[in-house]
Amino acid sequence: MDERDDTTGRTPVRLSLATLGDLPADIATPGYRRADLSAGIVHIGLGNFHRAHQAWYLHRLMQQGRAVDWAIVGAGVRAGDAAMRDRLLAQDCLTTLIELDPSGISAEVCGAMIDFLPVEEGNAALVARMADPAIRIVSLTVTEGGYYIDPATGAFDTGHEDIRHDAAHPDRPRTAFGAMVAALRRRRAAGELPFTGLSCDNLQGNGAILRQAVVSLARMTDGDLADWIDSAGAFPNSMVDCIVPATGPAELALARELGVEDAAPVTHENFRQWVIEDVFCAGRPPWDEAGATLSGSVHDYEAMKLRILNGGHQIIAAPGDILGIQAIADTMAHPLIKALLRKVATAEIAPHVRPVPGMDPLSYLDLVDRRFSNPRIKDTTRRVAFDGSSRQPGFILPSVHDGLRAGTPVDGLALVSALWARYCTGVREDGTEIAPNDPRWESLRPTAQAAQDDPGVWLAMRDIYGDLGDNPVFARAFAHRLGMVHADGVEAAIRDYVDTSPDS
Questions:
Q1: Domains of the chain by range and CATH?
Q2: 452: exposed, middle or buried (C-beta count within 10 Å: 0-12, 13-18, 19+)?
Q3: Tens digit of pLDDT for each residue in 38-57?
Q4: What are the Mannitol dehydrogenase C-terminal domain coordinates in residue numbering (predicted)?
């Protein structure tokens, strides 16, 4: 069979260590020998974002002959992670990173990962590898909703069935946190130092949240172990930023077009940022020499990014999908959605965000506008709108609370919540179905449908909204905006908000 790419006429090279020299000359490849690398990091949750972000920073150091003892071992605790493991092991854990700059496309092969542990019930291989003292950092990208947080209290959810399982069966953990506790128990028994736990998820105070999960779970079975982890371990906060779309047929085809047959390529924008609190208990790579920022003020960077960029994604994704717009860049070409983002972020989010060195909130909004508008990034409204039940309270509602405390407008944020409620009815304005797009979709959809007649039903989800439903200012604004969305349509509701004077 002729496997030549129909666009270029050349035969793509199947990615592996043995074929690196056969790749097209314009695809950069590792300048280091994989045989010289040794593992120092286990990363749990090996999706596209990690490979385009954290792994790339390490790869950049390795290209300089640095950090060769900090290579990554991949891991997963979900059955679905096994498919990624198979794909990556078949190509020696190499990844083609394709940068989608508006001015052009470039590609490089990243080799910072050297192994992927078996994905198995009980996680024995993962526990054993993390117990090895050569592993000095365990990092995670397990999504914002993966930390077992009780939304009503912010505390660790000790009643969750997965957590109860891990407490009852500490040697056969089901969760990443149970596996970390099991490995730390072994290290303590052997007289070894703990590893640093490094969250790379979009959570404000992600290090503190990771500490809470690990220490709380340990305390359910062994108070002394919990105290040792809490005092001797380290859980730095970090802020991560790079837009990385999901990989589908178009991305696989693009890799082939560039000359490489990669079963798991990653496309990404031409922007990365990583701000890390420099608190590690067992050393770290010199990530700052690869462009990361070490700062004691991670919270300010987090707030700017989570409120404006991640919050901005939530502002535009739901109305975009309801209107049948598939690409994020195309939502930014819709004048009303673009105006909605600009007004809500300027009037209702930015006033509560502190500047960081070299960047004020409105300049950051301009940067976000350009990034969202990049036509080469084929990010979808569906991907961005996924898991609103975690992302709305994580990225939107904190600005609502700030506005209510300060007495500043929250009408646009109420509209954003109303648009999400409309989205969860599961039907677009053209009548097509919105496929389930939230872990809680089965309960969200009937609630959203009931809210058409009684908006208070939506705000009564206290595990998402807390006491906001009791606040008359927000409750009235939400009811008004949701009624308008259902009665007049998405565009009319947005236009009404955009055209309303802030003082009216």
A1: 13-294 (3.40.50.720), 298-499 (1.10.1040.10)
A2: middle
A3: 999 999 999 999 999 999 99
A4: 298-482
